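The freezer alarm interrupted the setup, so I double-checked each line after restarting. Inputs confirmed:
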Amino acid sequence: MTESPILSARGLAKSFGGVQALHGIDFEVGVGEIRCLAGENGSGKSTFVKIISGVNTADHGTITIAGEEMTSMNPREASAAGIQVIYQDLSLFGHLSVAENIAINRMMHDGSRFVNRTTMREIAQQQLTRVGVDLPLDAPVSSLSVANKQIVAICRALSMDARILFMDEPTTALTGREVQRLLSIIIDLKDRGLSTVFISHKLDEVFEVADSITIFRDGAKVGDFAASDLDELSLSRHMTGRDVTYNRYVREQTDDAPILEVAGLSRKGNYENVDFSIRPGDIVGLTGLLGSGRTELALSLFGLNKPDSGTIAMRGKQVDVSAPWVAMKHGIALLPEDRLSQGLFPAQSVAVNASATMLDRIVNKIGMLSRPLEKALADTIVRELQVNNRDTSTPVIHLSGGNQQKVAIGKWIKRNPSIFILDSPTVGIDIGSKSEIYEQIHRLAESGMGVLFISDEPEEIVANCNRVVVMHAGAVDARFTEDDVAAAGFKEQLIHAISAPRHGGDVVIADATAIDAESQSKGLNNDA
Amino acid sequence: MMRNVTTRVLNRKMTPMEKFLLAIMAIYIVIVASQSPKFFSLETAFDLARNGSGAMILALGCLIVLISGGLDVSFTAIAIVGGYSSVLLSRALGVDNLLFIVAGAVIIGALLGSINAVIIHFFQLSTLIATLGTASVFHGAMVILLGSKTFTRADVPQSMLDFGAFSIFTIKEENSQYGLTIFFPIVIAVGVLTWFLLYRTMIGRSVFAVGSDPESASRIGINILRTRLFVYMYVGALSGLMGIIYFSGLAYINPAALVGTELGVIAAVVIGGAKLTGGEGTILGTVLGVVLWQLFQNTLVHLGLSSSFNDLFFGAVLVFMLGFIYLRQRQANKRALVFTSN
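Predicted 3D structure, all chains:
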């Protein structure tokens, strides 16, 4: 880099109540550079971004933007200097229109008192044109897909004349094609001089477009790397400070009578004619792009999404899984995709969450819930699953993602289900906890449980599954037997099967469009 | 055809709630008109305008609070405190001037509203709890400091009596005459002002933004305190205005009146489509909700039914209509595999 950097931070340090969150960080971004900021949860990434964006103030160190040293900085000044942060939750207003969401920031900063609809639409259209996306200006943002919401957030940042765009985990909720569109927009903006910093802890598409990668660990910078110099292994090593290799799972059970058999299962618009079976000790990988119907299928197996036709059999007996409690009666458990909104009671304690599936086992003689029994049960779960926080009275929301997930898994395993469906069990979880969760899953399978492991990540499937089903557009597109999985080059085959399905064509799945129409007809955001 | 008209006038489609309300209203009017020929007349409409004016003003204020994500139950207390204090002040100073009395009530109302906003903001209290408390404090303080003497017609300031009796035009018939109250254009003006503030000013858009997601709102630099001050001072000011309209219309000043009726107003706004979760609500919906409420309240006599039926009908409409609409939304969510509570 010969040009002087657009952003340069020197020796940034910050402590919160005696805990050093950042130790003398140096960080530079050049004009038109795409940089990745990688690190585990708690490595200091978010503190760093908060300081750069003026939300927090550093104890030591300097920040220079376009050659000008910023002495004090609040969010407004950071924004005026060209720093824009797009948080993972996007910070949009669901009830306001696309145009309003894009333009509100600009108009606020211009000090407008009145809403000039023409100006507002002009600002919005100008930014949309700039990123080359066409969105309905008057539609409420809540009716858009996540990918389009992200576009709105980007446009809002651009409308503020952003020079450096920070994006926190921008691709987690996107499908493969949407990720490609997002990245092509970013590359296009890069050519016009915009610098982007991606914050991520996953080696994925984002890394492919990055010019360089900065890794944080425990509040300090490990180093700056060229994207091409890193592979998964070295990235994990830098992020965790140790070699993380996942043990591959090999099934050793000899009982081949299937626990669960699914035959010809169909639900219109979701999935079609799905067959597979799970034997004791199987960890069956279920994968495919978002929208392939895998989550819909999982919900059907747990009684939350009634199939139209086909059969589900448990130990050779056909069952009608009409509701979650029926599924539980048959020994089926589900770890849902979104642990905070579907898998846990976030504001409740670890004890309450861990015992939630087993209330019948923590009652005393006269049928009242017993706190000591609840605590004892929770204590065993916390110990077994190696939850770091041993205090079971802590609200779950205060735990890290990895520990939350351990509690979510733990609440099922004491019921000893015969089939455990895990939907994306390691999303947003750091590498250390990941390997602990994998080991736990392996132990469950070794004890004879059948596991259905749904995941986006080929690495994860390879490490954990002894058989794999790949779905595309609602149908089973490819299968891998135990021999296939054990063969060399399986991972490449799997990646190929996921990204290049044999049955081409568009995914026809009930997506946001159903609600689109609904909320648009509400039309709450225009006038009166 | 109707869709074209509404789309043009409103610049948007009607919400399902608004359509339902219009349909229920139309059915009700047809039924009552067929039972009682006297019902379908200008006189009924004028009566309705007179009796419903106060409720409509309170409802418009309540709408803004709901959109901002709050729930205010102190507005009836503020209406009484603002109106009563202003009347006492005018009597004490001997200034029998309507503008003075209205200005007094509006200013006192806005001040009390600002107290609500400050308490909510700095103590981070739930708006319902804060206003539940301040409603009692405001009203109690007024009774202790100013007393609770009622004023009959002879003691009501003349300017208020004139105001309450003033019609912008009257229609004479053989043995009766009736007119459209001056309250009506005032209500229209308040409606237009509220619309303008909500949809055409940045502070109004901030109210929607704060109601949608306060965290995101503060991230883009919206001043939450300023927005809350605007919301609660505006509803306070409207309440003060309503207090004077209420006393003038009755020509009787009773400081124990009105308090306790706030839930009816909130119900009318909610039936119009405003959500307690914030960020959503429309002026047309609110207007329709209040009109339906007032229709039941004032015209059930034409069917020979007592006013108890008003509560019954209105409550039934509220429960069934909201239940139906939320059910439909939940089904749509379920189809899209969204399993959330609302």
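Quick read of the result. Residues 7-240 of chain A form a domain with the Rossmann fold fold (CATH 3.40.50.300).
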